[in-house]
Amino acid sequence: MVNIYDELVKLLSEGRKSILARIIRQVGSAPRSLGTKCLILDDGSVVGTIGGGCLELQVMGKAKDIFTQGKTRVLNFQLTGKEVAQSEMLCGGVVDVMLEPVFPENTTATEVFSKANNLIHEGKKGTLLTLIIDGLESSSNCRMVIEADGSVTGDFGDLLASEKSLVEKWFETNKPALFEAEEGGLKIFAEPIEPDAVLYLFGAGHISTFVAPLAKMVGFRVCVIDDRKEFANSTRFPNADELIICPFHEAFGRILINASSYIAIITRGHLHDLDVLRNALQTGAAYVGMIGSIRKRQIIYKTLMDEGVSRKKIEQVHSPIGLDIGAETPEEIAVSIVAELIQARLNKAVEKPPVKF
């Protein structure tokens, strides 16, 4: 997964034009979800995907005209019947795609997308609002970012006056949504800006060398933590965003754990696992998983409960870690772990065995 805002800010700083394509409406089945976006560059290359097949091919074709005309386009796709049969997508439905010219001469666009990108990297949240108007000039002010404290970057110019009500109504949008404004029936697409999901991988052993690149591939930032520099190094983990070499319990004083944090405990021994889990349960991490046998899990859980940790907290731990796919090899175990991380990131319920003591 690519941070589109990273790419947008980079292109704008280089004075390059691009087209932001985004799914703003979806009815029925579709290849990607509402808010999915890709970036079409001036050289014809594409960053990200909105589903591939005929849909993306047609979007790229329309983008060529937008580079010349400099106006927004809203495209409607009926992904049914003949159109589905001619594509590689085994799904049908109705999809609207907004194509926005993002050109460097629009300084407000640069400010808005830079703010969105900064919030992501600072671990903060906000909402991006975009006016949905077909044929809008690229120079128009049609975007704003609203932060959790109500601060606003960007504006809608003369297109919409009641911006204060937008701040009050939509700055806590949790999912992408298309709204109709009270003024003139204008449509506004609201989408959350959220920090990147970060996987804190405790233990730099063999299994972790497979977990790290897989997690990175599906969009997690990866931080590998171990007390052995011969294991936690860039040779073994070339794609890790960060490597921390220190005793496991000390690492919690060096990392920021929040609702976008995922903790995988894959250390080399019971005592290290116990130490990490003890600290992890005191955080607000979105996910805590621990590798090991049922017997090891029971011993560690009992120790923590004897120390006063509540059963409710312990029941939140995913252990044995990973989805039950019958994994045996380190590679298969890594796939099961990352699959469970994806499931947790999507806030879908993960079936766990009942905790028994």
Kindly describe this structure.
It is a single chain. It is built from eleven helices and 15 strands. It has 357 residues and is α/β, with parallel strands linked by helices. The protein has two domains: 4-193, no CATH class; 198-345, NAD(P)-binding Rossmann-like Domain (Rossmann fold), CATH 3.40.50. The longest helix has 17 residues, at 53-69.
Features:
357 residues; alpha/beta; Rossmann fold; 2 domains; five-stranded antiparallel β-sheet; 11 helices; 32% helix; elongated
- Record field, number of beta strands: 15
Helical region count? 11
Domain count, please report it.
2
Mean pLDDT over all positions: 86
Estimated radius of gyration? 23 Å
Strand content bin: 15-25%
Order of helices and strands: HEEEHEHEHEEEHEEEHEEHEHEHHH
End-to-end Cα distance, whole Å, is 40 Å
The biggest beta sheet is recorded as:
5 strands, antiparallel
Helical proportion, percent range? 25-40%
